[in-house]
Amino acid sequence: MAERILAGRIASISELKKNPMGVLAQGEGDPVAILNRNKPAFYCVPAQAYEELLNRLEDMELNAIADTRKGQERIKVKLDEL
């Protein structure tokens, strides 16, 4: 069965062992799929891309919370009361 690779670049585990930063650089800021026996084992994701991913997930979670609260009764509060 064919495996789906969700990255534009690929490298083998052997390549990663020889030159980890070179493999990461080959992705030019995007994730690199690391293959083991021609199947994706994991993805090397640059720190900035990972941070962006986490920020997007957090935004999605906050939007979901806001959507569940839509239409609820509003409670007015003064800052001095907090």
Descriptive account of the structure:
This protein is an alpha+beta fold and 82 residues long. The protein has a single domain, classed as 3-Layer(aba) Sandwich (YefM-like fold), CATH 3.40.1620. It has a 3-stranded mixed sheet with strand order 1-2-3. β2 and β3 form a beta hairpin. It is elongated. The chain starts with 8 loop residues before the first strand and ends in a 13-residue tail after the last helix.
Q: Largest sheet, if any?
A: 3 strands, mixed
Low-confidence stretches: none
Helix % is 40-55%
Q: What is the top-level CATH class?
A: Alpha Beta
Please state how the strands of the largest beta sheet are arranged side by side: 1-2-3
What is the quaternary state of this protein?
Answer: single chain
Beta content comes to 15-25%
CATH topology type: YefM-like fold
Number of strands: 3
CATH architecture: 3-Layer(aba) Sandwich
Query: What is the radius of gyration?
Result: 21 Å
The dominant shape is: elongated
Q: List the secondary-structure elements in sequence, H or E.
A: EHHEEH
Distance between the termini: 59 Å
Q: Structural class, please?
A: alpha+beta
The DSSP helix count reads 3
- State the domain count: 1
Mean pLDDT, nearest integer? Answer: 93
Write the layout of secondary structure elements.
Layout: E1 9-12, H1 13-18, H2 20-26, E2 32-36, E3 39-44, H3 47-69
Parallel strand pairs: 1-2
Antiparallel strand pairs: 2-3
Provide a concise account of the structure shown.
The protein has helices at residues 13-18, 20-26, 47-69, and strands at 9-12, 32-36, 39-44.
